[in-house]
Amino acid sequence: MMPLLEANGLTKHYEVETGGFFRRTKTALRAVDGVDLTIEPGETLGLVGESGCGKSTLGRLLIRLVPATAGRVIFDGTEITELSPKALRAVRRGMQIVFQDPFGALNPRMSVEETVMEPLLIHGSRRNAAAREAVARMLEMVGLPNSARYRFPHEFSGGQRQRIGIARALILRPKLVVCDEPVSALDVSVQAQIVNLLSDLQAELGLTYLFIAHDLGVVKHISTRVAVMYLGKIVEVADKRSLYARPLHPYTQALLASVPITHPAQRKRGPTRETRITGDIPTALAPPSGCRFHTRCPHVMPVCRTEEPAMRTGEDGHQAACHLVPG
């Protein structure tokens, strides 16, 4: 089976000015730096990593909300990297995004019906009874009453606003949905409701998700596979059971060891000296040579400082970019 989406060498560099008042130089901020990634039809690929590692930028690159500096993206058999705006619009029906901020993503001057109907109008539908019926069905699917269509975003709670954003993303019945930290701005009790809603909609509509998050518990619940990102690069990809049971990359091991432990029987399973990492993530303006994690890695070797590790594939397709992983 062909992947629904495939990225090869995907790169995004932003040009920024650095230096003092009298002498300024232009430097490339390497937000995403040579990412290879595949997403299979019907799966949920979780994407995790620290804030600032490039997760959201990668998500936007994959659906071409921002142009890539280099690399290519193939969606449903079509390379979209160099498509004209007109050709891209036709492809965009198949890929949508749910944003992190459920209030900032909605136009406060548009009613719920206008918000959810807007993608239909952009793609050629008319504002008629059929469009209004499609909006009503979609609102019902995301758990909102029909009366909500006449109200405005400020009249809803955060979880209800996110339901509106999900309805807007799904009104075109896309194949791929990028969920960019869709629950991080919500209360914990509401997070579970939205995650369960996304799972139910996936089963009902046959959706494929890229689920971007920093909460490893949420990712474990909803994902089929998990990709771990560090400083613009993917460092590990595996089936969620394999990754959570036997992480190969020291960064992934540290992330999992940092998850709070709530069950008394698991109290002794805290972060050890071997898994604990210290310090902040380096700047993407001047990433470290060799392995980008070597400045914080408890297992650093001389080769890590000079040679960038290739992605190596182990058992059951478990991949990790680390010199400690057997080739």
Helices and strands, with pairings:
Elements lengths: L4 E15 L4 E16 L4 E5 L6 H8 L7 E6 L2 E2 L5 H8 L2 E4 L13 H11 L6 H13 L16 H13 L5 E5 L7 H18 L2 E5 L3 H7 L2 E6 L2 E7 H6 L4 H8 L44 H5 L5 E2 L5 E2 L7
Helix pairs in contact: 3-4, 3-5, 4-5, 5-6
Tell me what you see in this structure.
The two termini are 26 Å apart. The chain has a domain at 5-94 and 174-250: 3-Layer(aba) Sandwich (Rossmann fold). The mean pLDDT is 91. Strand 7 (176-180), helix 6 (188-205) and strand 8 (208-212) form a beta-alpha-beta unit. It has helices at 55-62, 85-92, 112-122, 129-141, 158-170, 188-205, 216-222, 240-245, 250-257, 302-306, and strands spanning 5-19, 24-39, 44-48, 70-75, 78-79, 95-98, 176-180, 208-212, 225-230, 233-239, 312-313, 319-320. It contains 10 helices and 12 strands. It is an alpha/beta fold. The chain has an 8-stranded mixed β-sheet with strand order 6-7-8-3-9-10-12-11, with helices on both faces. It has a 4-stranded antiparallel β-sheet with strand order 2-1-4-5.
